[in-house]
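Propose amino acids for all 121 sites.
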């Protein structure tokens, strides 16, 4: 567990909650496989997995707003780098992310286009 992470906190209730959320043995192997795949893709793009995730959110047509959270200055600096990474997310790379995750919800509504339309009015 990384020092300074939420899982490293002393709160036993929070630890139990995160362990149930992230380490359920039924889905643990599937998540590890996806994380390794995203790690390889991030390495190929020259970024961190966190930057790839944030860049994907920024680029996604299903997300109208990306809100970055951070508890340390280093996290803010890392988050800002995601703005450059999102420029690398071609349709082919986005398809690769979707193939790795295999959990894309189907929607016919483009929230990003809707938000841009509302902002122009």
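Proposal:
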């Amino acid at each position: 567990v990384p020092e300074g992470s939420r899982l490293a906190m002393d709160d036993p209730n929070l630890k139990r909650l995160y362990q149930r959320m992230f380490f359920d043995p039924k889905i643990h192997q599937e998540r590890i496989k996806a994380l390794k795949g995203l790690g390889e893709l991030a390495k190929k793009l020259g970024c961190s997995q966190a930057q790839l995730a944030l860049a994907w959110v920024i680029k996604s047509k299903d997300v109208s707003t990306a809100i970055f959270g951070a508890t340390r200055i280093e996290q803010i600096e890392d988050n800002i780098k995601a703005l450059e990474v999102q420029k690398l997310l071609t349709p082919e790379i986005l398809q690769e992310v979707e193939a790795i995750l295999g959990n894309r919800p189907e929607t016919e509504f483009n929230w990003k286009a809707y938000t841009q339309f509302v902002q122009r009015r």
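The two ends are 48 Å apart (CA to CA). DSSP finds six helices and no strands in the chain.
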